[in-house]
Amino acid sequence: MLKGLALTFRHLFRSPITVEYPEQGLTFSRRFRGYELVWDVGRCTGCATCAKSCPQGNIEIVTSRGSDNTYKVEKFEVDSGRCMFCGLCVEACPYEALFMGCGYELASYQRGQLVLSKEELEPSSERQPSGYARPKVEALMPRQTLLIDRTKPSPRKPKISLGSALSLSKGWWRK
Amino acid sequence: MALKTEPIVVNIGPQHPSTHGVFRMRVTFDGEVIVDLEPCLGYLHRGIEKLAETRTYTQNIPLTDRLDYLASMTNNLAYVLAVEKLAGVAVPERAEHLRVIMAELMRISSHLMAVGAFLNDCGAFMTPFLYMFREREKILDLFEMVCGQRLTYNYMRIGGVSHDIPDEFLPALRRFIAEMPGFIDEYDQLLASNEILLARAKGVGILPAKLAINTSASGPVLRASGVKWDIRQADPYSVYDRFDFGIPTGEVGDVYDRYWVRIQEMRQSVRILSQAVEQLPSGEVCASMPCLLRPPVGEAYGHIEGPKGELGFYLVSDNSIAPYRFHIRAPTLINLTALRDMTVGWKLADAIIIFGSIDICLAEVDR
């Protein structure tokens, strides 16, 4: 019991490893797969590779043929209520027009608000692209907070040797 | 004079904190002693096997994340191994090593969760659980760094892995390897010399080796019964034949042995990790694959030693872009079949820890 209390005692003096979330936050990974998608309208050619690669069939694209024989994207809708953040659409995009997002607070009061239209998907101040499958963006992102950087290197090695736990305990507690 | 009482049927679950999900047990008691136990499954059935038949081979990888959500990486690995076997794809060396690193990190993480939840069931409410969670958090940090998610990784791809590791991954992993054995010792010392834990766990819920083999149990449940069977050595996949590691086995197959085997396996996983980091070659991380894979007509079964046991995927291809049949051999479903034999004759409180020691994940059992 004293050993257990000694460990508890040591834990009293270490720095806290959790943060108070709504007030404070940690920096997430550079490849974070957050807020479903950020869509760059200038690069998109309307090829619909992303829609084909989506396991849920979430992405709806309607295109029309423009005057200079290119596709014009009429409708680009993502139902984020069904999105599972797998990132396959972002990996599939051949023109780097799709990005995963950086946000993670996406609760909504109505299901209808979860269907995101073309305008809502474009990058804005709260909808920033993340570096998932996009090395150029990844290089610009801040470094991830790691718990391993915040704990002490290694605890004091106990005297008990590896694998001896079983032999130590053979039957002595029944006496 | 022994008091004779009527047997009474008690329903435990599906909403019960110690059933690790939505699991229902119909238990018949004689007084406080269990005379019969019947697991009732299916509360978390999502039809993943059928769903997978309508999706392409690549689109099924995120689905496998949702089987055993505490060990998504190994689910991915088992599935892509089956597809690679079906399609005859060669995987680059670096990708194989990265897969081993991820699978072993996942094994440590899953065992930490198993041990923590088991101690929770024993009555050490939340304290050891949160110690384990601190170490698990470091592993999740590493996974998040590599693939951007903390639970549903979707990292493995057919022919390799989706991304190479970032520069800061290896230093963080080396630090983790250096400090993890110390933490395991710390917890093991705290728990294995705890008289209450020993009194609760020693000799309880014994699964004899013969019965364990007959119920085709696998993983720590089988090894705790003294059977030395580990697919990493019995049928090496990926590059496991290049690493030197031991297979810890228990003696009697009680609850304590299952706990002990998991602790020892974490140590062996740290050994594999340090070797894999040393041997990590440079080069490509994914073979070049067609956009839509059409494997030749045939069938393949890919199996790995997952944290909870033998995880296998059986695939049948009809040369289309989606599998014709997609079957999962879920280790915990099969380990659950031994639950009745382990619990009969014990009391209710013992049934809870016996159940906890199997380490099941209902998302995988019902799928």
Highlighted features:
heterodimer, A: 175 residues, alpha+beta, Alpha-Beta Plaits, 3-stranded antiparallel sheet, 6 helices, disordered C terminus, B: 367 residues, Cytochrome-c3 Hydrogenase, chain B, 15 helices, globular
Task: Kindly describe this structure.
Chain A has 175 residues and is of the alpha+beta class. Helices cover 20% and strands 16% of the residues of chain A. Chain A is built from six helices and five strands. Chain A has helices spanning 2-12, 49-53, 88-92, 118-121, 135-140, 165-168, and strands spanning 34-39, 59-65, 71-79, 98-101, 115-116. Mean pLDDT of chain A is 75; it is low at 153-175. By secondary structure, chain B is α+β, with helices and mostly antiparallel strands. Chain B has 15 helices and eight strands. Chain B has a three-stranded antiparallel β-sheet with strand order 1-2-3. In chain B, a hairpin with a 2-residue loop joins β6 and β7 (309-317). In chain B, α3 (72-87) runs antiparallel to α4 (93-122) and α4 packs antiparallel against α14 (348-358). Chain B is globular and about 75 Å long. At the A-B interface, α1 and α6 of A face α2, α5, α6, α7 and α11 of B.
Low-confidence stretches of chain A: 153-175
* Oligomeric description of these chains: heterodimer
Count of individual helical segments of chain B = 15
Query: Briefly, what CATH class of the domain at 34-147 in chain A?
Result: Alpha Beta
Distance between the termini of chain B: 49 Å
State the domain count of chain B: 1
How far from one another are the termini of chain A?
18 Å
- CATH fold name of the domain at 34-147 in chain A, please? Alpha-Beta Plaits
